[in-house]
Amino acid sequence: MATVDGRRAPAEDARPVQPRTSGHISTEPPTRKHRRGIGWRMRRNWDAYLYLAPGLLLFSVFTVFALGFAFYLTFHEWNIIEPDRPFIGLENYRDMLEDERFRRSVYNTMYFTGASVPLTMLIGLGVALLLNQPLRGRGILRTLYFLPVVTPFVVVAIVWKWLYNGDFGLFNYYLLKTHLIDEPLLWLADKNLAMPAVILMSVWGGVGFSMVVYLAGLQSIPEELYDAAKVDGAGAFARLRYVTIPMLRPTTLFLLVMGIIGSFQVFTQIFVMTSGGPVDRTTTMVFYIYEAAFKFYEMGYASTLAYVLFAMLFVFTLIQLRLYRRTNT
User: Fold this and answer.
1) Is there a domain that residue 178 lies in?
2) Number of domains in the chain
3) For residue 205, what are the domain limits?
């Protein structure tokens, strides 16, 4: 082995010497180390948690605590004007199952959802397909279709209530002028017309949102797919059926889930236009919860109805997600 100045040179393949340890192996549980690491990171980023604290506090008080307290109320006869609030177990749930008005509200909500959601999505898709074409002034048209979405819904409901007026409403005026009807229709006072009238107004107010979401979905479809379909001889309808609609499945699922959640919580147009009438034909679940809580002051029963509504929405959403996954596997 070569030497330099009388000293032995290190071998070329010599490996670096590992530092000696005392031979002591830490017996500290990994969970403690992990917790210590989290605590160190929290102390290091304390200013970020300081900024998040107001939002977390509001969320904890008005969401987490409110949900827990509402669940607690479901087991009590809790009337806000009476001091005695006894524990009654599952009696609120039994009363709900025997409540004819509750069953009617469930039917009305299903009716509203089954009619308004498909119509809104179908019309929104049609408008989106039209406004996705290179039309002159399509930006203005998109804005006009979207205006009802950003208009306060209370204002929209008041305007439509005036349009439906049996004495001087525009609908009856033009229908009489064109001789489509012989006498004015009581749109919001007729038990057979009240819910369809509310559905028509809701569809008009929701088409703009569906249009914008479908437009985003249409513009994300690769143009190469349409070019390939044209090369294969596919016409406009075939391209819509075999390219556009399959590629819009995630968009359709999103609109379906959001539409069902929103329609199950319909309240504003019912409160402003019909107040649940006539004879409970437009009393939806949320409006019935409102009546139980703020008209009859039965907070325990209202909380029970609210939790049942949440359970129904949860089940419907799970079913839709399962169906979507099954169709995409």
Assistant:
1) yes
2) 1
3) 99-327
* Phi and psi torsions of 230, nearest 5°: -65, -40
Structure tokens at 60: 């904890």
3-state secondary structure the chain: CCEECCEECCCCCCCCCCCCCCCCCCCCCHHHHHHHHHHHHHHHCHHHHHHHHHHHHHHHHHHHHHHHHHHHHCCECCECCCCCCCECCCHHHHHHHCCHHHHHHHHHHHHHHHHHHHHHHHHHHHHHHHHCCCCCCHHHHHHHHHHHHHCCHHHHHHHHHHHCCCCCCHHHHHHHHCCCCCCCCCCCCCCCCHHHHHHHHHHHHHHHHHHHHHHHHHHCCCHHHHHHHHHCCCCHHHHHHHHHHHHCHHHHHHHHHHHHHHHHCCCHHHHHHHCCCCCCCCCCHHHHHHHHHHCCCEHHHHHHHHHHHHHHHHHHHHHHHHHHHHHCC
Here the CATH number for the domain that contains residue 145 is 1.10.3720.10
Q: Is residue 218 predicted with pLDDT exceeding 80?
A: yes
Q: Does a structural domain hold residue 248?
A: yes
pLDDT reported for residue 188: 94
Per-residue pLDDT of 278-319, as tens digits, reads: 989 999 999 999 999 999 999 999 999 999 999 999 998 888
Strands 7-8 vs 3-4: parallel, antiparallel or unpaired: antiparallel
Question: Within a domain: residue 257?
Answer: yes
CA angle 28/34/36 to nearest 5° reads 85
Q: Which residue has the tokens 């069902």?
A: 260
151: left (phi over 0), alpha (psi -120 to 50) or beta: beta
Do the domain assignments include residue 67? Answer: no
